[in-house]
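Re: that chain you flagged

S.,

Sorry for the slow reply, it's been a week of failed gels. I finally had a moment to sit down with the sequence you sent. For the record, here it is as I used it:
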Amino acid sequence: MGSLHRHSVRSRWSIFARLQAGVALLALPVAALAQDAAPATGADTGGLEDIVVTAQKRSESLQRTPLAISAVSADTIETRRITDASMLSSVAPSLSTTTGPSSKGHLIVQIRGIGESEPILTADSPVGMYVDGVIVGRSTGAIFELVDLERIEVLRGPQGTLYGRNTTGGAVNLIIKKPSDEFGVEMVGSYGNRGYWQGRGSIDTGEIGDSGFKAKISYLHKQADGYVDNLNAKDSRDPGAYNTDAVRVALAYDRGGDFRFNYAFDWAETNAVAAMAQITVANQNVIDYFSQSAALGGSAFIGPDRNRRSSATPDVTGTFDRSMSHVATAEVDLGPDTMFRSITGFRTWRNKISNTDLDNNSGLVGNVNLPVAGVRPVALFGANNDRRQHQFSQEINLIGQIGSSVEYVAGAYFFTEEARETNPQFFTLLLPPAFGGVMNRTSVNDYRTRNESKAIFGQATYHLTDDLSFTGGVRYTWDEKKLIQTSAIARQLSKNFSNFNYSATLTWQATPDIMTYARIASGYKAGGFNPRAINDGYDPETLTSYEWGVKSEFFDRRLRFNGTLFYMDLKDKQLNQFVAGSGGAASQTLNAGKADFKGVEIEVEALPFDGLRLNGSLGYVDRKFKELLAVDPTDNQEKDYASIGQFSYSPSTTANVGAQYSINDVAGGTLSIRADYTYKSKVHYNVLPGAPFARFDADIAAPGYGLIDGRITLADVAVGGGEATFTLWSKNLTNKVYRASGIDFTSFGYAINIYGEPRSYGFDVKFKF
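Prediction finished late last night. Pasting the structure tokens below so you have them in one place:
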């Protein structure tokens, strides 16, 4: 056993060494170009801006942070029209985001092939979503309006030391703008196709007298009609329509002394109609049975279609999401080199979904045997949902340095949440006459969950020389999870978990412009329960990552090249196995086995000459299951399906390319033209493809696709006592047809897809005073 372990360790270090060599080869051509480059001086030379990030709990330059991290500023967020978390795919390599089926607020996010698509409230996402340092506990409520964003930071790979549990894939930090020191007013109005319009305004008070207090108040309203014509509903009730209001109040106190305080209140409410699901493929018996509807006095059946439909007669799937949060951050300087920080967060979320439609049909009738024989309303599948969640978190940090050689962060963390879901489902089950014939069935999933997590952690950086440093971190986590379920099974379950995570990073500042680092880090995704499954829960999954990267800038910061190579080893993977049967749409969660991930990430930004800005990124990950255990429903035996396993909702390749050209002194302002291209490779929606699990997987998989966005802006035009900016924009400029998600109802005899939004375009006007 010991020799096998030593062999495994040697193999991993061998892989790690090859990764190092690979990134070194990537860096060599660029480094060679820079041998005569002068030291970077940033904005003074008209180069790329130096973005300051807080990924390691302290402010530091993005280019001096030894992590695989991407960050974009407020200007970039506005330029790319990133308005909610589902639009983050263009921000970083190896990052993919989309909206879950039958929902406006469910975020499915994947980093390096690690993610979670299950919307049940007991399922944890392995990618942490944070707003001003406070985690958003449930991915089902993680899509909300991003009002007044200052910066987005995407940390790729496990962040188990400083961020803790459920960050095996990485973390996304959304940092909101703080109140300004000066008085200011900003107003934005937008109008676009499909009834889109937006109004947004904010007021900065500046410092009130000499009190040290300042405030910022922001309000947003936006709405749009849907992008599939429901022939039975008005445009504002078409699939994809929404109506959103959001308010943010930020307060800050800072008189330049030892104490600083920030508080933020956010409230958002969205009434929407879920994007339409349409049947892509179905068994002939399903088609034959539901096609009788019109002859029996019901609506005509709309059958399978492998192309995006522009019209249909679905049920109106109304969705309602309301979130409210409070975040308070206090900082106290305990000395010239030590600071104490407290981050307190409270968040509530409420969600209702009515008439979930997963077949683009309504008003169907058919001959039914049970529970009451005769011609009755029938449906392939439908559901309602009532969900709510509230959470409280408290984190404390001690941040400082010892002399000039040691910097440290130490802290403790507490998180608690309660959530509840009531989910009635209704569907028509086609069975042979010997088994009851055609049945209308209903089922209800009703449960509550209570979770608590505590942790202590620390990280320190020791500067061995001026150019060489070592960073080590540890974290210990205790988790307690409870499930109280009343139906479909009445039960109470409770489990405790604990885990130790670590990280170790060696950093070498080879030149003032080139930094390279090697990093080992571990992550932990908590275990838990699946209320749709009959088993008594599942255990945590763990991941260890080996990473080597280079960060470099050349030619007075006119060229930036960052590259990363990584190898990740995942154990005890939590597999959600979807099962649609006589009890409704269900799933079971198992610790299915092992997988490894090998990949490369590249980010490039350049200013070839004044006025032209280029950026590009590429992420590629080679995923492979080493073990994938699942229960074969035909014989109820557990088998290893590693040879056919797939990573659902996860593209192997992501890429983004952007170009912007600006011309000064045009009509009193600056004219800029920008185009962005974002690419995702093929995506599957099932871990286990083919019969008997997901026999329609190949039919509903999303082929690789690329989207082009365009923007023309005339900025900083003097108007009265302020400035105005005028923008023409388009998303999905070429009207690309692409599949955003899919569900395989193999046991029901059909499968569906949800298609992404077609071309949209509009006009923005912004005034600043």
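What I noticed first: The domain at 2-768 is CATH 2.40.170.20 (Maltoporin; Chain A).

Talk soon,
D.
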